[in-house]
Amino acid sequence: MEMGEPERRRRAWRHGLVRRRAASGLLAGAGLVILGTAFVVLPGVVVDHDLAGASVAAQDRLKAVNDVRTTLLQVLGGLVVLFGAYATWRQLRVSQDGLRATQEGYVTDRFSRAVDQLGSDKLDVRIGGLHALWRIAEQSARDREAIISIQAAYLRTHLPWPPDGPGSPAADVPINDIAPLETRAADAQVALTALGVLCRQREQSWVNLSITDLRRADCDGLWFPEVNFDRACMEAAGLYHANLTQASLVSVNLRHADLTTAILRRARCVLADLRAAKLVETDLRDTDFTETDLRKANAQGAVFHRADLRMADLRGTDLRTANLGEARLTGALASEHTRWPADFDHTAAGVLGTDDPGPEPSPLLQPPGMTWQAPPLRSTP
Predict the structure, then answer these.
(1) pLDDT digit string (tens) for 185-212?
(2) Rounded to the nearest 5°, which phi and psi values hold at 95?
(3) Rounded to whole angstroms, how far apart are CA atoms 290 and 288?
C-alpha cells in the first residue's frame, strides 16, 4: 500500500531526528573521551616530560600529576566562564537590537499617524498631531531635523503672506483688528512654539519661514537662530527675549513688535520695517540695518555696536541710552525728534537731518479684558 504525503513527511522528520540525536551522542562521547584523555593521561605525560627520566618518589609524582590536573581544571573553568560571558553578551546584544527595532517601528508608526493628523479638517486633531511630532522630536534625535522641516512647511503653507485663505484677515486690516495668532490659528501657534523650542538643538544650518503671516505671534523666549524670515509679516509680534542670532529679516515687517532684550546679533535686517518697534536693551551688535525703517522705535539701552545703519530711517527714534559704538550711520535719516546719546555727534557720523514724518498709526491695543488703550504714537520733543 502506497504511503501518503503526510506519512512520508513524518517518517522523514523522525529519521532526521534520529540522525541528529545520534550525531549529538557521538559528539558528546567524543567530548568525554577527549576530557578523559586530558585529565587522566595528559597530566602524567606532562609530568614525565618535565622529569626527563629523573627518578622521584611515587607520592611526589602523584602530587605533581594532581597539580597539573588542578591547573587544567582551572583553565577549563575559565574557558567556561568566558564562554558564558560571551553567550550572555551576545544574548544582550540580540535583545538590544530587537528592542531598538521595536522602538524604531513604534516611533515610525507614531510619526506616520501624527503626519496624517496634520491633514485633518478638525483643529483639535491637527493640534494633537503637532504636539505628537514635538514629543517625537524631543525623544528621537534622528527624527528631529525632519520634524523641524515639517513644522516650517506647515507654517509656510497655512500662513502665507499675503493671506489667501477665506478665514485669514486681509493684508490691509489694521493690526488692532487682528486677533493674536494663538486665537485665530491655534495650530500655527503650536507649530511656531515647537519650532522655537526645537531649534535650540537642531543640527541643520537653515530653516525657512519666509513669506509667512506671523502678525501678533507669540515668540517670547523662543530660539530662531539662522532662521529665514525674509518678507514675512511679524507686525506686533511678541519677541521678548527671543534669540534671532544671524537670522535673515530682509524686508520683514516688524512694526510695533516687542523685541525687548531680544538677541539679533549679526542678523540681516536690510529694508526691514521696524517702525514703533520696542528695542529696549536689545542686542543688535554687528546687525545689518541698511535702509531699515526705524521711525519712532524705542531703542533705549539697545546695543548697536558695529551695526550697519546706513540709510536707515531713524526719525523720532529714541536712542538716548543706546550703545552706538562703531555703528555705521552714513546716510541715515534723523529729525529734530530723534534722541541721541549724550555727547554723540550724529552729524559727524554722516546722519542726514530731515523733516519729522508726523504721527504714526495707533500702537497695538491691550487685550480685550483690559480697558486701557494706548494713545496714538506721536513724535514728542
Answers:
(1) 999 999 999 999 999 887 777 899 999 9
(2) -65, -40
(3) 6
pLDDT digits 0-9 by tens, 110-147: 889 999 999 999 999 999 999 999 999 998 888 899 99
- The pLDDT tens digits for 42-82 are 676 666 666 666 766 767 777 777 777 788 778 778 887 88
**Do residues 242 and 259 touch, judged by C-beta distance below 8 A?**
yes
- Give 285-333 pLDDT, tens digit per residue: 999 999 999 999 999 999 999 999 999 999 999 999 999 999 999 999 9
Residue type, 255: R
CA gap 44, 61 in Å, rounded? 9
Q: How confident is the model over 216-245, as a mean pLDDT?
A: 95
